[in-house]
Amino acid sequence: MIKLRHPTLALGLACAAALGTVWAAKPLDAAPAAQRAIAPAGPDWRIVGMRRLTEAQYRNTIADIFGTDIRVAGRFEPIVRPAHELIASGARAASISPAGLEQFDAMARQIAAQVFDPAHRDQFVVCPGGSGATPDRACLRPTLDRLGRLLFRRPLSPDEGAFYADLADRAATAGGSVDRGLELALAAMLVSPHFLYVIERAEPDPAAPGRFRLDNPSRAARLSFTLWNTTPHAALLDAAAAGELTDPARLRAMAGQMVASPRFASGIRAFFADMLLFERFDELAKDPLVFPYFNPAVAQALPEQMLLTITDHLLTRDGDYRELFTTRQTWMNRPLAALYQVPVSRSQGWVRYEFPEGSDRAGLLGQAGFLAMYSHSGRSSPTLRGRAVRELLMCQPVPNPPGNVNFTAVQDIANRAMPTARIRLDAHNTDPVCAGCHAITDPIGLTLERFDGIGARRTRENDAPIDVSGSIDGKLFEGAAGLGQALAESRDTATCVASRALEYATGKPVDDSARVDALTDRFAARNHRIRQLFLDVVTMPEAYAVDAAPLSGTATRSRRR
Amino acid sequence: MIRRVRPLHLLAVLLGAGAVMPAGAAAQPADFPLPPADGSPLPADVVVRTGEGQAVYTDRAGRVLYGMDMRTVLRWSPDAAQYCTRDCRKTWEPLRAPKGSVPNIRFPADGLPRTAPGYVLPQAAPDWTIIAGPDGPQWVYKGWHMVYVRRGADSRSTVHDGADDRTWNTLKYIPPRPRLTVPPSVATRFIAGAYRLTDTDGRLLFTGPCTAPCRWAPFPAPLASAGVGEWSVERSGDTAQWAHRNQPVFVADHADPASLPAGAHPLQP
Amino acid sequence: MTSLKTTTLTLLTGLAGLAAGFAAVTPGEPGTVIAQSSPELPPPPANGELGFVVEEFAPPVVQGKEACPDGTVPKLKEAYLASLPEAERARLALKENEPEFTRRWQATAVGPGNTNICSQPDRFRRPLLRTVQSPTAQGLDLDRGAGGESCEHGEFTSPAGETGIDNQEYRVMGCTLEWRGKDGIAGDIASGLRQFHASGEWTQVLLLRGIDSFDRDDDVEVIYANTADRPPADAKGRFLPGASFTVSNSGPRHRNVLKGRINKGVLTTEPTTIVLAQTWGQGGARDLRGSRSRYTFNQGRLRLVFRPDGRLEGLLGGYRPAFEVIQSPAIGGVGAATTAGIDCAGMLATLLHYADGVRDRKTGKCTAVSSAMRVVAIPAFVNDLPAATGASAR
């Protein structure tokens, strides 16, 4: 059990506990204590979802609200990814453990201390007499109301405002300074569920009596976190306050501006990092004896190269999504260039790079990040690679291997009698139990065998030539370039990204295939432009219509089953 | 008997070199970053010469001041302050401190106590101190550089900068850093002859008319900021953006004033 | 498990092969080298350019008992002890007299006016050091065609039998513990230089331009320069081939432009002054990252062999100013003498005694010693900015 030493921690835990209780037992809006703490809305509003901020969203939010020079240091309790879903979906069911909350509390204190330190405080304290006035207790409420609106993404209710001002006032008395009071109240806001979770609220839909829709602040948060991966900016908060986001035309105009902004790149990076399971890069490890070119600088550069390729192709060049699998354009830095054995002119940073024509380095699948991730620590893996292509890019789940498989043949990479992965897998697949699934994955993965376990190029394995012929769903091709072309031509890749985009925006996997099909058709009609896809996803009215049933523990858990 | 001590020759040197005189920051050689003047008053005989190229200190006759980096002459003179005599004196003339001046700095040679009453350490010295030189009290610049002028016809030029393996270096003048009320994310850097405002990574800040579609990168401000001094926050765009005297501020991706976009004005104090 | 074991084995075999290669084809035996390497070399690159990063740069030491039959050069402490009568030696060897002994031998390292034998080696008179006695050394024949510039000196024969080898630096330093090491273990100079070289403080790169043939090409431009880029290395510290480096057009580094020729797989350059960067220490005396110094090779030249595996391997030779050889302990000052026991004054005196190059115009005495560095370079991409911008070479 955690010892409750600090008032803030105690407060945070109390909030969490209250919320947890409500959440587990009965609808939130039925708990008078909780209701008092939540901003007023129409008589029938209800909480319909809570999505925990990801680490990146938390960091981006703090940087946006308080500045990039405010340091955020601490360990973020990870959000668990449900099988075959996005972390964005996991965020809907993510709780915070006592240890995790303790981390948030420590970060909150640290942030608050910086915000009200002598170097920063002047710009954040607002007083009735103007910013030049000597800070006194009259400054507490206006300062905290202002911060509260940004942190909770909606105006504080009068009760909330009074609560935080009173907390600050008492802490100021105890601590002997107004700043100390502000610091404590800010820290309390930063551990509040209203900050740590994006709380989605529904209101009755006037256009459809008996039905509910997401309210304005919830729409603002959805637009912002989906498209920019950060907290709503001033114009969006203002639009929400003015009730504009429930107007489809205004919503579309706002979303249109947001996908046209350079800030959309942050959203696209976050989306693909989620879709392509980039959290795995944190644990990527390679045997240094087998792969001397793998080092921390390379490990760091691998996902970045993929993200730069993605944003450059999809946004800067406004390219066709399908060409992500065939493009020879990418970015290089020095550590990666050594792995790729290509020159890079600049000592620091990234430069554009184009693989030569005829190079087998085609698209995302020819990049070391993908190839290294879907390999073992000491060898490549056609099976892992093929499975990743199926699951991540085509949204086709592949069953796990049974528990009693004998892997001896595939692991014996030094066996001169079976010099290549293809030969070893053939041996392994004489077991019919294995063969079924390998037939789904290996003909894809074997085409990438000219890249070793960290994605470095090779032409031979154990001195034997490597055969990179393969197939996908009956279509035959050669090498990474052939695979890229096949994926580019497959409707499944477009359908997959469309359904992921919708899941990402709503935080729910999509089980309505008709809706995904329609979305994919529109995506195709717009030449597979990612801006159009996301514009569609964040403006489709269906995505804002919600079940009338308010959130309850039972409801939440039932979806997980 | 010879006992194997494993005297790491190189390691000893590392330690030794580190221990003797840790003070890189006051380097005057042209290929290292120059520290700005600390604002303390100049000796009566010293003026700053600006104009073309790097500003330097000169004497009132316009002769360029050179610093003899005491750290470079140890081999010849364990008390580096006494190095320049005989032949050296024929080439270099000391910038003498007023008669009767009391020295307040000395070279921290091996064996001498590090500190002594009335003396400052070179690494913590103000710009101008006085050392007991071979010819009496003599000026020292930034703790390490005994001040001289070059004798002969080219005494007004800087051609001897870096002479004798960077023993002799012109005394380069960088104005004192201005004290400003700026957001914490703003820094002041001396770039191309003037102080400029940059972000904390040294990228230039600038203002100017950014015509639509504006591709300049806004200099981001905290959403929660109410502004500071002459800086306010413009919130109408995608990003909360700093404005200086109501002019939106942008940030370059480099530190070269010559490479700013057309119409851009670098922010200067 | 199996895979790891095998890898290690392969690796060891590889290393052994490498070592064997070094032993068999020493840089000083051009005949063997030429015969071996030329036919196996790949065709020259289409654009005529090859880049390399220098992985090894250390004085070559020929191991064997005959080099220093009386053992390595005594440390200051040992030299002091040896200078005493036997009875006194015995007395000072007693544990209770250690403080007195330490005080007395360390006193030999310091002189009046705060001088010490490493910071001011010219101010002390110390006996000459033990020198290398064997006739064998690695190096180049530097004075063939140098006219009367050189001073009288003995010459070595290379392990492969090449005569006329000039390497007075080795003659003087070759019996110091730091160079020779002990019992077949390389000295600290080898490991120390390797560490420094891997640190990225003064990485060296080579860029060869205009290569038409590995068999014979009379006109190859060789850029031998320092770069501020740190070489990536594997877990054991070996540099990785194929990394990129930039030769800056503004930094305080050195860039030597050499005129070279290739004959049967061996690259040689015409004598000229070659200067390369060196820093000693960290955060030291006057610089940001250590005390700046340099390698100066007067009448310096390279002789490097192209290896089939892509390496360049051989020697850099030239005359180094005597003081430069002891720059490192000189910067170390009194600590180098009293902690590491290095007799800087004795070293400098011996170096000047055996100096065979760069005559002082006034005194007529030689001031520099013939010297050699073993150079091993591996393939790299070298981005030579001064060439790209047309800046003049330094």
Describe, in plain words, how this protein is organized in 3D.
- The complex is a heterotrimer of chains A (561), B (269) and C (394).
- Chain A has 561 residues and is α+β, with helices and mostly antiparallel strands.
- Chain A folds into 3 domains: 9-261, no CATH class; 269-489, no CATH class; 491-546.
- Helices cover 51% and strands 7% of the residues of chain A.
- Chain A is built from 26 helices and 10 strands.
- Chain A has helices at residues 7-25, 32-36, 55-66, 87-90, 98-115, 121-124, 140-152, 158-175, 178-190, 193-196, 216-227, 234-241, 248-260, 264-275, 296-316, 334-340, 368-373, 382-393, 408-411, 421-428, 432-445, 479-489, 491-506, 513-525, 530-539, 553-560, and strands spanning 46-52, 197-204, 212-214, 329-332, 351-354, 460-461, 464-465, 469-472, 475-478, 545-546.
- In chain A, the strands form 4 sheets. Chain A has a 4-stranded antiparallel beta sheet with strand order 1-2-3-10. Chain A has a two-stranded antiparallel ribbon with strand order 4-5. A two-stranded antiparallel ribbon of chain A has the order 6-7.
- In chain A, strand 2 (197-204) and strand 3 form a beta hairpin.
- In chain A, helix 14 (264-275) crosses helix 15.
- The two termini of chain A are 29 Å apart.
- Mean pLDDT of chain A is 87; it is low at 1-40 and 552-561.
- With 269 residues, chain B is mainly beta.
- Chain B has 2 domains: 46-108 and 119-170, no CATH class; 186-266, no CATH class.
- In chain B, strands 3, 4, 5, 6, 7 and 8 form a 6-stranded antiparallel beta sheet that branches.
- Chain B is elongated.
- Chain B starts with 8 loop residues before the first helix and ends with a strand.
- In chain C, helix 3 crosses helix 5.
- Chain C has one domain (51-70, 116-384).
- In chain C, the strands form 2 sheets. An 8-stranded antiparallel β-barrel of chain C has the order 1-4-5-7-8-10-11-13. A two-stranded antiparallel ribbon of chain C has the order 2-3.
- Chain C is elongated, with a radius of gyration of 22 Å.
- By secondary structure, chain C is an alpha+beta fold.
- The chains are: A alpha+beta (561), B mainly beta (269), C alpha+beta (394).
- The interface between A and B is medium-sized, with 26 and 20 residues.
- Chain B: Keywords: Signal.
- Chain B: It comes from Novosphingobium piscinae.
- Chain B: Residues 1-25 form the signal peptide.
- Chain B: This is Lipoprotein.
- Chain C: Residues 141-155 have a biased composition (Basic and acidic residues).
